[in-house]
Specification:
181 residues, alpha+beta, Alpha-Beta Plaits, 4-stranded antiparallel β-sheet, 6 helices, 4 strands, 15% strand, globular, Transposase_17, Transposase, Transposase_17_sf
């Protein structure tokens, strides 16, 4: 049976996404080193993709992300080129760098404004690093990520409180602002 298409906002300004993704078999695979790498990766990809982060929590066996996708028509060609270079040409020798051609603007605008591409990229990059770092292979994440559309401010605030209190409920800290991840 084919899986259902993911629900997405027609207009990205309509609301926010709450994304949850669990580690394989809900194992506690993320220590401080892994959380730090995930955080660094999240910050980098949030600069590349058309994403406006609201909040997040990185736990030992799952992550919560709340963000809004920026409409692709609000990103200038110059900003698109900057994002492209950050993604493809950072840490690449000058003679091997890729160039964003004029005909490719629409394709990259579509890719960098797609919530599925953003999360897929985040999870794949983390998985490759994690498996290489721990000399293992196989899945790191369980199935597809879960996403909920938060279409109004009330839903957004309630979900942000839930996500922020995750570390408190787990007993990691006494108040949310004490938790780095």
């Amino acid at each position: 049976m084919a899986r259902l298409s993911r629900l997405k906002f027609n207009n990205p300004e309509e609301g926010y996404y709450h994304v949850v993704s669990w580690m394989v078999q809900q194992e506690f695979l993320m220590g401080d080193k892994e959380k730090e790498f995930f955080l660094t990766l999240l910050k980098k990809l949030a600069q590349v993709y058309f994403v406006r982060m609201a909040t997040f929590t990185i736990m030992s066996n799952h992550v919560h992300l709340i963000f809004q996708m920026i409409p692709s028509d609000q990103v200038s060609d110059e900003d698109l080129r900057r994002r492209f270079n950050l993604y493809y040409n950072e840490d690449v020798p000058k003679k091997r760098q890729r160039v964003l051609c004029d005909g490719d603007h629409d394709r990259y605008r579509q890719r960098l404004s797609d919530v599925s591409c953003f999360i897929q990229d985040l999870k794949q990059r983390f998985s490759r690093w994690y498996n290489r770092e721990h000399k293992r292979y196989g899945h790191v994440w369980v199935e597809r990520f879960k996403s909920v559309l938060l279409g109004n401010i009330r839903a957004l605030l309630a979900c942000m409180v839930y996500v922020e209190l995750n570390a408190v409920r787990a007993g990691f800290v006494d108040c949310p602002e004490e938790y780095r991840y």
